[in-house]
Amino acid sequence: MADAAPRLKSLVEQLLGVSLPVRIRAWDGSEAGPPGAPTLVIHNRRALRRLLWKPGELGLARGWVAGDLGIDGDLYTALDLLAGLVWERGDDARTLTQAVRDPDVRAAVRGLAKLAGPFPPPPPPQEEVRRAHGHLHTRRSDRRAISHHYDVGNDFYEIVLGPSMVYSCAYWTGLDSTLEDAQRDKLELVCRKLGLKPGQRVLDVGCGWGSMAMHAAREHGVSVVGVTLSQEQAAYARKRIADEGLTDRVEIRVQDYRDVADGPYDAISSIGMAEHVGAERYLGYARDLFTLLKPGGRLLNHQIARRPQRDESSYSVDPFIDAYVFPDGELAPLGSTVTQLERAGFEVRDVESLREHYALTLRGWVANLEAQWGRAQRLTSPGRARVWRLYMAASAVAFERNRIGVNQVLAVRTPESGASGMPLRSRTWN
């Protein structure tokens, strides 16, 4: 008799103390749960062993990446519903001590273990980061983390990002804009906020595949130095720059921002890079950029932000993101970022939230990936493609639900005279 799904549903609800909002389909073909809801497909019993060994997000992630778990139905809706069980139980969640003492919970765990089959659990998927011992955010550890995320293959990124090759939140001036339009408008917005003028010298920290550097040089007549830790990004950017005849105005270096020593620059853009810096290093990052700017120079810092916690010391990096996407990446509340920039000497002049814009951007990237799913798997691996689909779709939901945000912070190295060079009217970028 095929009854794995009803048994699973009953055991999981007993364990969590809440009703499952999604449907379950088990490896034996049985189903249980609310009709019409997205379905969590458990392809084999290995998925249960992974969850029992690593309960919560990491166990689910390992099952998804390995292909032991899947979703039938709208992925965004499923992730939104599951978020309440896995990521957002908060103060309503049972503590570990309570769970261990609860005989019903212990009985549910025993039932799941029996259903899961013989241990030990399977090894983690090959796409999971293998941790090296040592300090975080050293030059060596940062190179390793950046390589894990960005050296996946330029052909793969072309699928996801599209022709713009811009890997950060786009700027949607209307819902009828294309992803390409929105990315171009974002680059132009950054240039206008920086007040770029012909002949100026610009530093692009974390330059990616060179799109910002090329746009600034081509459209605003500036010279740009772009730095990245990814060899693959640098090679791709240099070819694009040569193809467009911009080699006399754009230089791409494989270099840590801490090693840039040829300032001062008139302006600095840091787009989607500061998330890699880490809380312990952030003030140093801000001071380094402050030192590299001329008096009166502007910094545009474009960065994802998390919501502040009651006890900031309890913050921990998202397990799935840390293990599969951005090793050692950290998110900070917006207020902390502004404070650190001010402590470094900057005058913060403008903060603009682009939260809804990033949700639209991520949905565009997911659509690109799904449209060429077979090729994406061949270019990387089936597991890596599943990592990206899950991470981007889950991130889109997080931005839509205001669980995380993204902000452009414009700051100035205001000289002692107090003349910032900023327009009197806000949002008048020139």
Outline the structure in words:
A hairpin with a 5-residue loop joins strand 1 (23-25) and strand 2. The chain is α/β, with parallel strands linked by helices and 430 residues long. 46% of the residues lie in helices and 15% in strands. Helix 1 runs antiparallel to helix 6, helix 2 (46-53) packs antiparallel against helix 3 (57-66) and helix 9 (179-194) crosses helix 10. The protein is built from 17 helices and eleven strands. The longest helix is centred in the last third of the chain and has 19 residues, at 382-400.
List keywords for this structure.
single chain, 430 residues, four-stranded mixed beta sheet, 17 helices, 11 strands
Short summary:
46% of the residues lie in helices and 15% in strands.
Rounded to the nearest angstrom, the distance between the terminal CA atoms is 72 Å
Q: Count all strands and give the number.
A: 11
Helix segment count? 17
The profile of the biggest β sheet is: 7 strands, mixed
The overall average pLDDT, rounded, is: 89
> Strand portion, in percent?
15-25%
Spans of at least 5 consecutive residues whose pLDDT stays below 50 are 90-97
The helix/strand class is alpha/beta
The general outline is elongated
Rg, please? Answer: 24 Å
**Percent range of helical residues:** 40-55%
Spatial sequence of strands, sheet with the most strands:
7-6-5-8-9-11-10
- Give helix and strand order, one letter per element, not per position: HEEEHHEHHHHHHEHEHEEHEHHEHHHE
